Amino acid sequence: SLALELPRLETALRLPTQDERQQLLHGLLQPQARIDSKYFYDDLGCELFTNICQLDEYYPTRTEARIFAENRDAIAAQLPRNLQWIDLGCGDCGKTLQWLNVLQPARVIGVDIAGEFLQSSMIAVAQQHPQLECIGVVNDFTQHLDLHDLLAERPGNPPVFFYPGSSIGNFEPRAAMRFLRRIRAHCGEHGRLLIGADLIKPKAILEAAYDDARGVTAAFNLNVLNVVNRELDADFQPERFRHFAHFDAAHRRVEMHLVAKEKHSVSLGRHTRRYFGTDEHILTEYSHKYSLDEFRALLAASGLRCNHYWTDPQDWFGVFLAEP
Ligand code: AVJ
């Protein structure tokens, strides 16, 4: 007869606004059209991403999971006691759940852009850990990470930011630095960042991970057009585009694009129309890859010292623990 207290959900930190619709439209009207990767994650997109994580070709999730599983105690030993655990982009909180028993945090804050998905995730965490304070924050933290007030409620509990999965790769290196500096600004003296980054490896392995045989990644990429249709009242027809992924060695990133199969035009709401020529690309995602040294240099340039890191036997993925 445990009455479940609903987890606190902070939605004050904004849902799509006029401003963001403007940005989305602006990106689509550039000579090189682009859609920010954050638009992938509607309900269907979250589900497709969960499926991607289970694909044979998509090595990052299982490689990182193995690094965590094999080093959990060693990593935990480096973290402060009575911490506040902040999961950035928590999704279903599956990764966080695996840390709770060993860390026994004072509270868990899940941050995600997908609001309803977040609420059910936080409820699930609260059900499994009735003593734990669980807070969901609906926020596009890539644009405005500001958890200062929330963290200040517990001045005695140092924040540990958990940013797994190599989502940092979505940022271009300079933007990644700005974002890491914002995290650093939340850390205080005892705060930490536990972050996963995908590492440079042969092109064929990278490209297969973003263009799987079953077409799940293609469906994930094309689904962003349905999101844009709803967001802008646009009329993209996903079947007129095809999925394309390639590794750009010069920029050290996998790029995902949607390529127009034929010349056609798309309405982007009431007063705007964009023409796409045959083979014209819409850029939908960058996924930057680093060497171990490059990623530690990025952390250092962001004011974060990395004294410990862990990897797999092939050096395919890195987990880094950083502190101000
Ligand atoms: C969630 C950003 C880490 O870049 O690998 C997976 C997203 N895109 N397959 C990645 C993604 C295509 C993923 N991140």
Automatic annotation (TrEMBL):
Domain Histidine-specific methyltransferase SAM-dependent: 21-323
CDD domains assigned: AdoMet_MTases
InterPro entries: EgtD, EgtD_Methyltrsf_superfamily, MeTrfase_dom, MeTrfase_EgtD-like, SAM-dependent_MTases_sf
Source organism superkingdom: Bacteria
Pfam family, one: Methyltransf_33
Signal sequence, start to end: none
Alphabetical keyword list: Methyltransferase, Transferase
PANTHER family per the UniProt record, alphabetical: ERGOTHIONEINE BIOSYNTHESIS PROTEIN 1
Name the record gives this protein: L-histidine N(Alpha)-methyltransferase
Protein's organism: Halopseudomonas sabulinigri
